[in-house]
Amino acid sequence: MSQPKSNSAAACALPPPNEMILKWAQERPNEVYLKQIINRQFVEYTYADVADQALRLVSALRKLGIHPGDKVALVSKNCAEWFICDLAMMLGDYVSVPIFPTAGADTIEYCITHSESKAVIGGKLDDPAATQQVIDSIADLISISLPYDTAPRCQYQFKQLIDDAEPSEERPQHYDDKLMSLVYTSGTSGLPKGAMLTYGAFSWSAQQLINHIGIQENDRLFSYLPLAHITERVYIFGSSIMGGVPTAFPESLDTFIEDVKMQRPTLFISVPRLWTLFQQRIQDKLPQKTLNILLKIPFVNSLIKKKLADGLGLDQARVLGCGSAPVSPALLKWYHSIGLNITEAWGMTESFAYSTLNYPFRADKIGSVGNAGPGVELKIASDAEIMVRSKGLFSGYYKNDIATQESFDKEGWLHTGDIGAIDNDGYLTIQGRKKDNFKTAKGKFVSPVPIEKKLFEYSRVEMMCLIGLGLPAPILLVVPHDFPNFDKQRYARSTKKVIERMNQELASHEQIKGVLMIKEPWSIENGILTPTLKIKRHVLEQKYHEIGHNWPKDQLVLWEDELTTTHE
Questions:
Q1: CA dist., res. 307 & res. 558, Å (int)
Q2: What is the pTM of this model?
Q3: Cβ atoms 1, 95 nearer than 8 A
Q4: Which candidate among 71, 133, 281, 539 keeps its CA 20 to 30 Å from the CA of 10?
Q5: Each residue of 65-98: pLDDT tens digit?
Q6: CATH of 23-199 among 3.40.50.12780, 3.40.1180.10, 2.60.120.280, 3.40.50.2300
């Protein structure tokens, strides 16, 4: 893979990240590029520092016997060293294999062995146990630890390697269809697949995004969504390195909002779950009725909006984004009402997360995921599947030709697996995953996502999931919002109202028969959420199949913690 074929020896059409860091280091050596918060202080790295450390790491990896074309895995939360390691892989002609920091030992081991990674870099982790287990079990795997207390114990230390090495003089020549990285997609079912990302498609996607949003002088980024995921890698790492935009990293989840306030980002991307938590934080302090009254008073209106944005550290944000999972239109409308316009975007690993975005923001298009970004073509197939074509597509799945062939049609259109519709203005609405649609015991198909979206508008819950595969009728699983002074009876009464209202709008086979209030919140740790916080519907379908099957006729709401028998 590492040797250019004679016909593709031409250089990349756009300068790849490895060339950009050398360019910035030459043109802006002393400007601060990365800021890592440690013990509530910024530790700063200039462009020259980052280039120097990355080139030293290349020399160190060469000394350890890692050759051009070899795969190197990286398991860490976001931090300045993550960027440095990723740039070193490109400067050293290695193929990077980023792994989610929340992945379990089985997933980490699978990604390392399937990709044939020669080395693993273990970094900042909430819990290093899973990574440690894999490092200890694979005998010939070279391991390097980043300078954090929570990193696993490794053979080599990043800091020591850098201190002992000279900056590499090699400058590899990349070309557009050369393999840059293997990103393992955390499918909601089955084993992860290694999506092959090339230099050309990566640089193209990042550059299109920069052109579309328009990077400005004094822009600032904040990187906290997992860099192992394509969205953060393109939107944040890609924009920062291609556009030369300073980027900060949080210290921990506990200090998150304070960390955002320290950086005051101008471009900020988040996921529905976090936008919901931010909303709850505001509503717990300022009840909706009071907020509505204040927003109606002309002079107070702008003060309140400023104060709310300020409280989240987003008072200077030019672009706010949301992606990676379906978001309720009601939530986006609520933010719009307080003066924060959130651009919803849609894409997938296979399209470098760059397919559609609602930018420039249009309030009348909330509920859609925007229109095709410049350079992207969209169409809806006869079975309602969304098809995408652009220069920013992956080149297939590593060691899986069958899945690769199934992903593309003859004309180069990518099958996304999502179903949707495009309106007259070209704005796309996602109606769910092809495979999420389930068939009830009566043989009728139900599409759960539009129903869930509607329910989010009617109620205040943390998470929900509609299941019904092989059941007499759909059952709604709800993780209730953790209110202070939680009153079960009151909550059940308001739930009943919401469901009755909802059932009036649904066809008879779609009507919700029961609501199960879940005891333990869903998380990555208990195996219900993927690393990108998508719900594994099939796991919930299996877990609650029996309860759904034997649902009592006369009860709409059940509480999981009150069920006498344990259903597994």
A1: 40
A2: 0.86
A3: yes
A4: 71
A5: 999 999 999 999 999 999 999 999 999 999 999 9
A6: 3.40.50.12780
